[in-house]
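Sample intake sheet
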Amino acid sequence: MRRKNRPVGALMVLTLALTVMAEAQETQNQAWANYDESSDLARLAELDNARMHYRLLRSGMQTPGSLWASLNDEINGLTPARYRVLEPLVVESSIAELQRMVDAGDLSYEELTLFYLSRIRETEGDPAKYLNAVISLNSASVDRARALDLARRTAPDAERDPIYGIPILLKDNISAAGMATTAGAVALQNNFADDAFIVVKLLEKGAVILGKANLSEWAYFFCDNCPSGWSAMGGQTLNPYGRLQFNTGGSSAGSGASIAANYAAAAIGSETSGSILSPASANSLVGLKPTTGSLSRTGVVPISNSLDTTGPMARSVADVIILFNAMIGYDHRDTAMPMMSDDLYLEYRDQSMASLRLGAPERYLDNELFVKALGLLSADEAAIVEIGLPEIDTEGFSTLLGREMVRDLAHYLRDHASPMVMIDSVDELHAFNLQRSELRMPYGQAEVDRMVELDISLAELEALRDSLQSGARAAMEALFAGSDLDLLLSMDNHNAGFAALANFPAITVPLGYADSGRPVNLTLIAPPFQEQLLVDVGGRFERLADARQMPAAYP
């Protein structure tokens, strides 16, 4: 069959677009060829914050361009001109706004997916701007979005979940078929496991899994004095608000940096003790750490069955609610889940705070931003109660996490990991890392060293767990009852360990920025399974403060 001739104008536009892309790729390749991270490391060594005296920035497991190599042809289908048209529409837009644009015909789910992939390639391909925020991209994401567009056109009146067609990122300890789930570790580089329970739920509701976000290796239970956001598979995650200035928080560092930099609409993190609250705060995001038992952990690389939870991270409370609702469902394999977990649907609503009593710890009353938050809440008729925080006994906390990880990681490797994974225990992980320590553990593996030396029986572990959790829960319940509190106020990830041991959920919401430009968040803590109260007050405060600003260097 003879091909029809293209109009000359269209051919010229296509040729120009291809030329622009080729020149950009050539410039990018030359920049990487000239890049030497030693000058950046030298700048970091001058910072007062010793935790940012990084030894490495780039991972030895990735080469420039390998992240998106399988998607290059698809990404090139979005011309530079169309990308620039979409940029002001997509960047910083909420999920609801994106859906309205799709409804109006201003973009498709395929274009939305391609936009985020293009943005990731553009930023992570720039040696002066890369964030190391993503470990892997889903080669099936564009086909998935295209299929969702087709389904929407063929059944335009069908009822769809708000997450339908929306690209999200998963922390790379959450399994998704077709992508390795590494927890940032070389030992799991071939862990092609089945979908985690929450991923099954997301896919049922129409989400597009864009890829996997970087993280602090083994969810930050791996090495001593190592920076948050480092993994052997993904390198050092950097903060878009201060790329070589501020920490990313951890362990869901890539989930935080990615969403702050508008690499996706939202992301999923996980928390044992502060791992959602910390990076959400460091990246001026909303992060919800649910009650353990609200969301399934099946198919998630574990630390502690007692404390682990997954949770949503996004640029607004409304988006966090949409992502949370897309993951709910009772999982009989997860022993932490009560039957009520099937019905934990959250609503975004505007509730009065007139009847609420909020506990304000005295230790934060000299913080200007915290006092500003109290003023906003008080003006909105909430009662502010000054309190002192109790001391709780955390002796043995690391032992609890270490012994549970020995047990729970072995169960994960046996029941969920790919047969291609060559370790089946913490002992084998320890030995594996010693074989090429400069690549696999440049900061050491002190937590793993301790785990292989642990001598504590399961009966002793249960006694330790009961003691730590019951003590924290009793202290938190006494604090709430003694001052008749509805919520406890905090800052960033402060008191995350207290909340984790007591199994009290928390939400963190942008509050403002320090004089240096570092993001600061207000954090709310509530009794178990009071996530609706958290999002009600968190959403109300978000509207009052209107504090979040996008990172200036990543417009």
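Comment: The CA atoms of residues 180 and 190 lie 6 Å apart. Confidence is low (pLDDT under 50) at residues 1-15.
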